[in-house]
Specification:
This protein is of the alpha/beta class. Among the domains are: 132 residues, P-loop containing nucleotide triphosphate hydrolases (Rossmann fold, 3-Layer(aba) Sandwich), CATH 3.40.50; 90 residues, Zinc Finger, Delta Prime, domain 3 (Up-down Bundle), CATH 1.20.272; 43 residues, no CATH class. The chain is 52% helix and 7% strand. The strands form 2 sheets. A 5-stranded parallel beta sheet has the order 2-3-4-1-5, sandwiched between helices. It has a two-stranded parallel ribbon with strand order 6-7. Helix 16 runs parallel beside helix 18 and helix 17 packs antiparallel against helix 18. The longest helix is centred in the N-terminal third of the chain and has 16 residues. It starts with a helix and ends in a 33-residue tail after the last helix.
Length: 402
């Protein structure tokens, strides 16, 4: 193994270079699937890969880079902007003269702002650039509509435990790219625990395995757990500790403890949590635990989300702190939450109950003849004090709100 390869992280060394070696995502790259055909025929449309961390978005892009005859260029949306895009466009126009296509891979494309995405749009629209974007965030919210409409969205699912097990085994056995040359030993139980703790993220599994192999040639479950902590991976965005800490934040706000809420917020942000994830949880909290007790809480939460979206980390940390403290100090009510739970239960139990005839929309003569809208009392004519039933007959008189 040469020095350059040796110094490359294990997760990067173990990337498959052929579709045949790519694990998971059969729904989009299985035999006969559209994306597989597009790759093998080198007729790629612009596309967005949307999926959780470690599901293979970047790996799939690199496989395309190996198999395409187009010039493949890449950069991260975190570190690059319009200046880098201009260089790509310049090269793409040169390639166009040579009748050669240009593929641009943008990792974390959701981190590009409106101006940057708008600058990319005309070049994708004209076919000068074939875009491959990768994102962990819903592209419906994070990618401009005009740009998104010119791309195919492929949804990658979290890898299964079995997939992660296979990836770990391959790394243990591979004497060229993996750590097989080091004669590291890990029994089936260790591999299973590592796969389970990695929560579908292949990169985390390989990072932890690499760290563990530097501690001991005989890897135990204890070493795996230590490696997670030492690698600062115990707080995993899709793992148990992630849910433990967001739960702690939620319960601290519910319990009016602003100091504890701030602490758990900092735990997440300092560990690298996506601020928009926290902001979304605050939007939910505003209605679930505060609701009608202070309807402005929802306004605060939505404003927090928008502000975080505008400026990102680290500047948005104080914005999240403001919203968290506000939520913690607010008067609480879960009436809306419990009321909706009751209504949802009735919907499941009673199924599709018919809408009472008198509140149906009579938009045609036939509907009127069938009694649609007959007997409906128009509120303004009764000073909004009319008495009539709005629920189906089976639920007549039902009260969901306290």
């Amino acid at each position: 193994m040469n020095k350059q390869v040796k110094n490359t992280p294990l997760a990067d060394r173990m990337r498959p270079e052929k579709l045949e070696d790519f694990l998971g995502q059969d729904e989009i790259i299985g035999k006969g699937r559209l994306l597989r055909q597009a790759i093998t025929s080198d007729q790629l449309p612009s596309m967005i890969f949307w999926g959780p961390p470690g599901s293979g978005k970047t790996t799939l892009a690199f496989i395309i880079a190996k198999q395409t005859k187009s010039e493949f260029m890449q950069f991260s949306a975190v570190a690059s902007g319009i200046r880098a895009l201009k260089e790509v466009v310049k090269k793409a126009r040169e390639n166009e003269i040579k009748d050669k296509k240009t593929i641009l891979f943008i990792d974390e494309i959701h981190r590009w702002n409106k101006t940057q995405q708008d600058a990319l749009l005309p070049h994708v629209e004209q076919g000068i650039i074939t875009l491959i974007g990768a994102t962990t965030e819903n592209p419906s919210f994070e990618v401009r509509g005009a740009l998104l409409s010119r791309c195919r969205v492929f949804v990658l699912k979290q890898l299964t435990k079995e997939h992660i097990v296979d990836i770990i085994k391959k790394a243990l056995q591979d004497k060229e790219k993996g750590i097989g040359k080091l004669k590291v030993k890990a029994d089936k139980n260790v591999v299973d625990v590592l796969a389970q703790m990695s929560n579908g993220d292949a990169r985390i599994a390989l990072n932890v395995l690499e760290y563990a192999s530097s501690i001991s040639k005989i890897i135990t479950v204890k070493i795996i757990k230590e490696a997670f902590q030492k690698s600062h991976l115990l707080y995993d965005k899709d793992g148990e500790e992630h849910y433990n800490i967001i739960s702690a934040l939620h319960k601290s706000m519910r319990g009016f403890d602003a100091d504890a809420a701030l602490y758990w917020l900092a735990r997440m942000l300092e560990a690298g949590e996506e601020p928009l994830y926290i902001a979304r949880r605050l939007v939910r909290f505003a209605s679930e635990d505060i609701g009608l007790a202070n309807s402005r809480a929802l306004e605060q939460a939505v404003a927090c989300y928008q502000a975080c979206h505008f400026i990102g980390m680290p500047e948005c940390n104080v914005i999240l702190a403001q919203a968290v403290v506000y939520m913690a100090k607010c008067k609480k009510s879960n009436d809306l939450y419990t009321a909706y739970e009751k209504t949802a239960q009735d919907v499941k139990e009673y199924g599709n109950l018919p809408v009472p005839l008198h509140i149906r929309n009579a938009s045609t003569a036939l509907m009127k003849n069938l009694g649609y809208g007959k007997g409906y009392k128009y509120g303004p004519d009764f000073g909004y004090k009319e008495e009539q039933e709005y629920l189906p007959e089976e639920l007549k008189g039902r009260k969901y709100l306290k």
